Amino acid sequence: MKKIFYFIILLAVFSSCSDELNQLPISSATTETFYKSTNDFLQGVNAVYADLRAYPDRQLNLSETRSDNLYAVSDGGVRDWEGINSFHKTIAANPYITEAWLTNYNGIYRANVVLDQLVKNGTIITDVTLRKRLEAEAKFLRATYYFDLVRSFGKVPLIITPISVSEALSIPQSPVTDIYALILSDLQFATENLSETNAAADKGRATKYSAKGLLALVYMTRSGPTYNIDGPGLGLNEWSQAITLLNSIIDSKKYSFLPSYSNIFSYTNENNPEVIFDIQYITGLSPVLGSTFAWLLVPDAYFQSKGKAIQGGLTIRPVAETLINSFEPGDVRKTFSIQSGYVYNGVSEPRSFFVKYVDLTKVPTNRLDWPINFIAQRYTDILMLKAECILHGASGTQAEVDAIVNQVRTRAGLTTPVANVTLPQLMAERQKEFMGEGLRWNDLVRSGLVETIMPDWITAEDIQKQIQPFQTNYIIYPIPQSEIDVKGGLYTQNAGY
């Protein structure tokens, strides 16, 4: 698989500390020595991209698993995902949660280093357009990391310059509104200074339209209900701001709706017209820079049943029966994305699981080196987000909403059109369209449906009686215990944990 640009991890320069509040800073002397050419800045920005490598796994572990898409309770032995799925209160030390905090802050630190050096040494880059683009890429990525943090944890420390560990020990959590202020500022700069398209050598870098897509989603998320918690929803009415950005992407004609659902995710059709922003990987290198998300929700015994080596998915995270039963006959999304059991060594596994990203002809010898990108933004999502904005009162008509949903359904092989689509119906269609892509939990929270859907789902699905009663406090995760313990009283643990 050909990849375009490398996520260069500059280990000698960008060192980090895995068990402190924030990453160890590179010394000012080292920084001043390193940033001496345009290529140095390019490598510095590439290092900021590098922290996206775990982003897909995180969305599957923290959003997909948390949602009503999976019934990931214990099947023998304690798994890290069980507490996520089952709303356990004692998950502050969960490694998935800790990873979300540390990796996002590592990306923020790297972005801050680049932005700081652009101020101090940026005139080295004589091409002013390139200089602005690199600043815009760093700000797009910093906004991405902070948005992931605010949706996961709510109030978090706001850090906009490179700081030392001792300095980090004096920075408390900031209000969600302050985090959003930085996110909006960064993304607005990115929309104004990123390129509309990238040259072939720069595929995978952020563009003006990926920044607009993320900014639209930020406005929509801010417009979601507050649930009376310090979470991502602020109850604002910014649907009109969002739809203006979404329409700009649609009207650009840079992207298009693929007629084949499976072709969106084909290993031989990457960077297709559906892709607005994806996480790029390259295989066959040392250190390994391939992906791992393809097998994350797939049990190892399934690969063994196909004569392949185990990958790392361990045991099964079954697709919820309520989701399986929601599909209409002939829906190609179900047959493409869900594997209905298997037999290995004479033992039958009847439960279903997601295989959306698995091509059995592409299974690598190294389970950490899968040759597939992760689509973080795609055109169908932009269309359906537009429909969501219209249903919330933004400019548009019911006919437009219905047309978007019917376009999606037709591609899925469904011939019966729908009319007068409501918000719950739209979100149900999004569930089927984007299952296994890590969007579902945030969709439920943003739409305000999480309070009704999750309790009803637990009642219908939890045959093992393992899931705790849903509380709105569980919309966000606890601050990692390792961060709470670094300095007593610096952070306040999120309610409910």
UniProtKB/TrEMBL annotation:
Pfam families: SusD-like_3, SusD_RagB. This is Outer membrane protein. Residues 1-18 form the signal peptide. Transmembrane segments: none annotated. InterPro entries: SusD-like_N, SusD_RagB_dom, TPR-like_helical_dom_sf. It is found in: Cell outer membrane. Residues 356-497 form the RagB/SusD domain. Belongs to the SusD family. Residues 76-220 form the SusD-like N-terminal domain. The keyword Cell membrane does not apply. It comes from the Bacteria. Keywords: Cell outer membrane, Membrane, Signal. It comes from Aquipluma nitroreducens. PROSITE patterns: PROKAR_LIPOPROTEIN.
